[in-house]
Each structure stands twice: as structure tokens, then as C-alpha cells.
Design a protein that fits this description.
The complex is a heterodimer of chains A (about 350) and B (about 400). By secondary structure, chain A is of the alpha+beta class. Helices cover about 55% and strands about 10% of the residues of chain A. Chain B is built from eleven helices and eight strands. The chains are: A alpha+beta (about 350), B alpha+beta (about 400).
Chain lengths: ~350, ~400
């Protein structure tokens, strides 16, 4: 049978991330960063680096810990819960492992406080390209690397106030050729960690609404007393609980890189971000007009969920991957839940 | 049974359309297609006055007060042609649809003469002082206090979500004027000029980056003793009468605006290939069906010669259109994909469809949340027992 329990080490890293983000990526810091317009809060980014959160997926040959996708998914979930503005997930979860697979001793990998941005055919715009130590670029299936000052970056205002997107114009003369890269694996990781962030986004949206519904009084009672309110939140929580094991199973089997594992990643991305989107929408409704105002923060979760829904493959793309498994794999009673049977 | 409009009504439609079209391609072409309520306020005040000057400001009002005695059907036709022409949202919506009809129904002759001509002429912009930080769905729990003092009302407290207070001239305020009263008792409906030391207006930024709402603070704010509508203690009755106007005719003309939004989504889906996604096609078809559902609902209401029955049907209308439009906003973003998440320039300013997505989150909240609407339908419409709500 599959084992969904997490080991001590996994729980420890997740707890480290949770605590760090709770201290350094909350309402005060969101406000501070939105007002200053700064790319990042240096103290927070340094703390992330010092705690080694960026090293989990890197192979030991690159100075990393050589852990797996499930380990990093737990960190990504916490990043979602904190609406973390920093590029930890894409840099350490997608870009750095891709670079390490090509050149384990690349100098960019030596300093964990240096972020790496990544362009992917599924994502026309590049997140946090201006503050990256290097940008991994895509051309005809090959990977290239350039520093931000070697390319032309045009900022594009995202609906998510913390998602700093850029259009990148570049030519091969001012970039370094890295060679063939596993773009499919990058996509799977990007999609999986988006899904993991979705779980965190969803849970935070529900938690905020639960707190508000306990506190906000109308008609002489906390609004959470009314079934019209509490049923909404119960529905949101149900979706989260069912999405979580899908994300974990997708993480555990991502390395297979076959039609089954890809479909599972797609499944995870669809359900986790639907849960996040739904939870954020419900949370806004429960907050009433406060939820529609900028200062109450719930909108950050709606907007991050939206941004991640369309990054690393749209819902259409991922539904097609699920359909591909259905229509290309043998069917019949002996094939039902094939991977689970094989592992039983 | 007779569906649709009469020949005379269609002639009226042609007249509205021709006039609006001429304005929106001529003198007021610069404000055509604005989809927020806050852009270019000065030009829009000029537009309100232009409408008033040509007798289009408040066609449903009596001729005596600057209207046209327009029938319900004509009002709907005008609202439809208004949206079709691309004319911007009415910044004096509150004055025309709520304050004016309330004064007409409950005001004194002197008050009618004082307020109605200037509202009709687009010279007096009104905003609504109902909600407070602790009185939202539970509107009757307002705490803003009013007292009579040497021939003046003196008002202290705070209102919130006052749309367009920052560009308005007057505000109507539901204030607690009987010390120690609770709930709907002891409230009085006051009309107050905004331009005075005792009133401070602070903008509230919304999730779409716009700031249409405000907090409005009253610190010994004043208005003359005869500024109340109805009698002292009648505030709740007047406020409920006003909200019935809000649920009535004024919502029926919106469908042309909805049509514009759905058409923009269909065009975008054809353009970017989203129309090839079977799920998107299904949702667009569903949106189209929902729009026509509302259309026939409106026509049915209009065909009922007993207008007093409209309020009952209108009870179900708010939740229907609000939920439909919120779904439409979500469909818009799913059609646009990543392109919908990028603003046109470097500022946090959004085109019609992303703004529809963000703005429509409020449709199911303002003017009675969906949850409150369902309670109203069940309790007032179906006569079901009231849910326990505190001790009132």
C-alpha cells in the first residue's frame, strides 16, 4: 500500500518553513512590501537561504540535500499559506534542479542566496527575472543562461501584486548555451509545486474566513453561527482535504516521468488550485465588503491562486494530460488504478 | 401573452439610441466605454448635466420634476440603449434611482422643490450613508447618532462603503436619534450636505485597485432641522422604502451591459482559441442561457400591469443576476488565461474583462449578500420561519 505518513525529517523542514514564513511573511510584511514596491525583503530572503530551504531538491553533488519532490512540496505548501512573495519555489524547486542536472558544479548553485529564474514554453513571462543571479532561457529545446543585464527585461504588471513578471528579449550572442534540458520534468515540478502552494493558499483563505466569522457580529451573533456562512467554509475545507493526498501522491511518483505520473501531477494541479480558487472566493464572500477591499489581504490569495492556475500549464492543458492517460492506457477491471495495484 | 415591446416602444428605443449614439460619438466620445465609476469625474459631472439638460437624466420621474413620466418599459429601453451606446456608468445613480424617488414618495413639497430639480439637472450628486462598520447585513444596528440642537441636527458617527462620497454633494444618512433605542426603532433619515467641516471622507481601495468606496466620518456634522425625510423615528421605514426602489426598475436595464460583457468574452474566446475548449464552449452557452433567462424574467415583470407585484419577483432577481455575473467574471478569466492577469500598463489598471472578474466579487455582497437574499426569498417570499437572529 501507499504510505501517506510523513517522516520526522519531512515534518521538521515543513515546520521550519512554517515558522519562518509565519514570522516574516504576514500582513505587516505584505503591506510593507506593497508600499515600498521592493523586489524582496532582504532579511527574509537571507533567512530562507540560511535555513537551507532552497537546498532540499538539489543533488548532493551541487551542495544540496538530494531530497525528493515530496519533501519540497511541503515547503511549497507553507509558501502558499504565507503568500510568500519571494521566488523560493520556482528557483529552488524548478530552476536550480534543472541547472544542476546539466552542470552540477555550476557556480550559480554554490550560493543559496542567489535565486535563479526560469523561462518555460508554458510560461511566456518570467517571474522575478530582475533579481535573479541568472535566467534559464529556452530555445529549440535547449537551455541557455543569461544574467539579467544581458537580456532586455520589460516589466508586466501582474494581477497578483507580488508576482513580478517580465517579458524577456534576448539573443544567443549574449547568453551561454547549457545544452539539452529536461523541460518536461521542469513542467511537472512547476505544476506540482504550484499545486502544493494551492493547498496552502486554500487553507489560509479558509483559516482567515473562520477567524473572521468567529469575530464578526451581525444580528447580535458571530456570523459563523449562521449555516449560510459555515456551510460555505465546510465545503471549502472538504475540497482541501481531498486535494492534499492527490498532491502528495503526485509528488511521491513524479520521478517516474511516464504517462501515469504526468496525469497524476496534472490531477494534483487541477484539484489543488480549484480548491484554492474556491476557498479564496468563499473567503471573500464570508468577509463581505471587507473581503472586497484591498487592505484585508484575502484578495492576495484569490490572485495568487489565479496566477498559479495559469502558470505551468493551464487547466485545459492539464485536463488533456489526464485524458491522454485515460485514452492511451489499457482499460478493464485488471487495469483499474493500475499503479496502485502494481505497488500493492 | 404578449412578448416584446410595442411599436411605440420600439420608436422610443430608436429615439434613445440615436440621441445617445450622437453624444457618444460626438461631444462625449472621450468618456465612452469607461468601465469604472471613478475615472474622469469632472467630465462625467458634465455628462450628468448634459443628460439633464436634454431631459434624459431621470426619465421615470414626473414631468413636473424634470422627468418624462416614462413607463417602466420605456425606462428599461432607455437603460438598455444607454449601455449599448457605451455611455459610462451613471455617477448620479444614487440620486436618480434612490434619493429622488424617496423624496418623491416621502418628502414634503418644500423638499421636493429644494432637491428634485437639481438632481434631475445633474447638478446635485447624492451618495448613500447606510452601512456602518458594525451594520452591514444587520443594517438596523446603526450607531451613528443624531440629535436636535438649536434648530439643527448634529450628527456623530461613521458610515462605510459610501460609494462616490468623494465626488458627491449630498449624503442621506440613517442615524439613531432616540437615545438608547435598538434595531429599527428610533432611527431618522437625514439629508446632509457633504461639504462641511464636520464630515471627513477617506477612500477605501478595492481589490481591483480602484477606490470607489469611502469611509465617511461625522464629527458634529450639521444640517438644518427640516432635513429629515418623514418623521423623527421613521428612518427604518424610509430606508426600506428606498431599498425597494433599489430592487425595482433600476436593476432591469443592466442586461444590455451584461450583453456587452458576454459579447466581449465570446470575441476573446474566438480570438485566442479558447472557444475550441469544449468546457469553455459549454460555459459560454450556459452564460448565454442565463442571460436570456434574466431577459425573459424582466419582460415578464414588465408585462405585468400591476407594478406593485414587481417587488415580489424582484426579490429573486438580485441573487440571480449577481451570481450570473460573478460566474461570468470567472469565465472571462478562464477564457483570457495568462493574458487576463497582465495589466495594460505599469499601473494596477484593468481592462473590461479582468475588471469584470474583480468587480463582480462585490456583486454578491453589496445591496444584500447572496446569503441575505436567500433568507429574504425564504422568509418573505415563501413565508418560512425566521432564522434566529440575536434578540431583536
Amino acid at each position: 500500500m501507499m504510505d501517506f505518513t510523513l517522516n520526522e525529517e519531512q515534518l521538521m523542514f515543513a515546520e521550519t518553513a512554517r515558522q519562518l514564513f509565519a514570522d516574516m511573511s504576514g500582513p505587516d510584511q505584505w503591506l510593507e512590501q506593497m508600499e515600498s514596491g521592493a523586489a524582496r525583503i532582504e532579511a527574509r530572503w537571507n533567512a530562507i537561504a540560511e535555513n537551507g530551504l532552497g537546498l532540499l531538491l538539489l543533488p548532493e553533488a551541487s551542495g544540496g540535500m538530494g531530497l525528493g519532490e515530496l519533501d519540497f512540496a511541503l515547503i511549497a505548501e507553507q509558501a502558499g499559506y504565507a503568500a510568500l512573495p519571494d521566488p523560493l519555489v520556482e528557483s529552488a524547486g524548478v530552476a536550480a534542479p534543472l541547472l544542476a542536472a546539466i552542470d552540477p558544479e555550476h557556480p550559480l548553485l554554490a550560493d543559496p542566496s542567489v535565486s535563479i529564474a526560469i523561462q518555460h514554453p508554458q510560461n511566456p513571462l518570467v517571474a522575478d527575472a530582475d533579481v535573479a543571479g541568472g535566467i534559464i532561457l529556452h530555445r529549440d529545446g535547449e537551455a541557455w543562461l543569461a544574467a539579467p543585464d544581458q537580456v532586455t527585461l520589460t516589466p508586466r504588471e501582474s494581477i497578483d501584486p507580488f508576482r513580478r513578471l517580465f517579458a524577456v528579449a534576448w539573443d544567443t550572442a549574449s547568453a551561454t548555451r547549457l545544452g539539452q534540458a529536461d523541460w518536461d520534468l521542469a513542467l511537472d515540478r512547476g505544476a506540482l509545486f504550484s499545486a502544493a502552494q494551492g493547498l496552502g493558499l486554500a487553507q489560509r483563505a479558509v483559516d482567515m474566513a473562520v477567524d473572521y466569522a468567529k469575530d464578526r457580529q451581525q444580528f447580535g451573533k458571530p456570523i459563523g453561527t449562521y449555516q449560510a456562512v459555515k456551510h460555505h467554509l465546510a465545503t471549502a475545507q472538504v475540497a482541501i482535504e481531498f486535494a492534499r493526498p492527490v498532491v502528495q501522491a503526485a509528488a511521491a511518483e513524479l520521478a517516474h516521468g511516464d504517462v501515469q505520473s504526468r496525469a497524476r501531477v496534472s490531477h494534483a494541479k487541477l484539484v489543488a488550485l480549484e480548491a484554492a480558487d474556491n476557498a479564496a472566493r468563499i473567503s471573500i464572500q464570508v468577509h463581505g465588503a471587507m473581503g472586497y477591499s484591498w487592505e484585508v489581504d484575502v484578495h492576495l490569495f484569490l490572485k495568487r491562486a489565479l496566477a498559479l492556475t495559469n502558470s505551468w500549464g493551464t487547466p485545459y492543458f492539464h485536463r488533456q494530460r489526464v485524458a491522454q492517460r485515460i485514452f492511451t492506457q489499457p482499460t478493464g477491471p485488471d487495469q483499474t488504478f493500475a499503479r496502485e495495484i502494481e505497488h500493492a | 401573452m404578449k412578448l416584446g415591446f410595442s411599436e411605440a416602444e420600439e420608436a422610443f428605443r430608436a429615439e434613445c439610441a440615436a440621441w445617445l449614439q450622437a453624444q457618444m460619438t460626438g461631444e462625449f466620445a472621450d468618456i465612452r466605454g469607461i468601465h469604472t465609476l471613478t475615472d474622469m469625474p469632472e467630465r462625467r459631472k458634465e455628462w450628468e448635466q448634459h443628460l439633464g439638460k436634454h431631459g434624459w437624466g431621470c426619465i421615470g420621474w414626473p414631468r413636473q420634476w424634470g422627468g418624462r413620466d416614462a413607463t417602466l418599459a420605456e425606462q428599461v429601453i432607455f437603460a438598455e440603449e444607454y449601455a449599448r451606446s457605451g455611455a459610462p456608468g451613471r455617477i448620479n445613480h444614487i440620486g436618480i434611482e434612490l434619493a429622488g424617488p424617496t423624496i418623491l414618495a416621502f418628502g414634503t413639497e418644500e423638499q421636493k422643490q429644494r432637491f428634485l430639480p437639481d438632481i434631475a439637472a445633474g447638478k446635485t450628486i447624492f451618495c448613500q450613508g447606510f452601512s456602518e462598520p458594525n451594520a452591514g447585513s444587520d443594517l438596523a444596528s446603526v450607531r451613528t447618532k443624531g440629535r436636535l440642537e438649536s434648530g439643527e441636527w448634529v450628527v456623530n458617527g461613521q458610515k462605510i462603503w459610501t460609494s462616490l462620497a468623494h465626488i458627491s454633494d449630498w449624503i442621506f444618512v440613517v442615524a439613531r436619534t432616540e437615545e438608547g433605542s435598538k434595531g429599527p426603532k428610533g432611527l431618522t433619515f437625514l439629508m446632509m450636505p457633504l461639504d462641511q467641516d464636520g464630515i471627513e471622507v477617506r477612500g477605501i481601495r478595492q481589490i481591483n485597485g480602484d477606490a470607489e468606496f469611502n469611509e465617511t466620518f461625522f464629527t458634529d456634522a450639521r444640517c438644518p432641522a427640516d432635513s429629515l425625510i418623514g418623521n423623527i423615528g421613521d428612518g427604518w421605514k424610509i430606508a426600506m422604502g428606498l431599498l425597494a426602489f433599489e430592487r425595482g426598475v433600476s436593476t432591469l436595464g443592466q442586461q444590455m451591459g451584461f450583453r456587452n460583457e458576454l459579447d466581449a468574452i465570446i470575441a476573446a474566446a474566438k480570438d485566442n482559441g479558447a472557444a475550441n475548449d469544449p468546457l469553455i464552449r459549454q460555459r459560454i452557452a450556459k452564460a448565454e442561457i442565463g442571460l436570456r433567462l434574466m431577459r425573459y424574467g424582466a419582460l415578464r415583470m414588465l408585462s405585468n400591469s400591476d407594478h406593485s407585484k414587481i417587488d415580489g419577483a424582484a426579490l429573486t432577481y438580485k441573487i440571480q443576476w449577481a451570481s450570473w455575473r460573478r460566474d461570468l467574471g470567472e469565465l472571462a478569466m478562464d477564457v483570457l488565461g495568462q493574458a487576463g492577469e497582465i495589466a495594460g500598463g505599469s499601473a494596477y489598471e484593468w481592462g473590461m474583462l479582468p475588471n469584470l472578474f474583480l468587480f463582480s466579487r462585490s456583486d454578491t455582497i453589496y445591496g444584500g449578500t447572496n446569503q441575505i437574499q436567500r433568507n429574504l426569498i425564504a422568509e418573505r417570499g415563501l413565508g418560512m420561519p425566521r432564522e434566529p437572529r440575536g434578540d431583536l
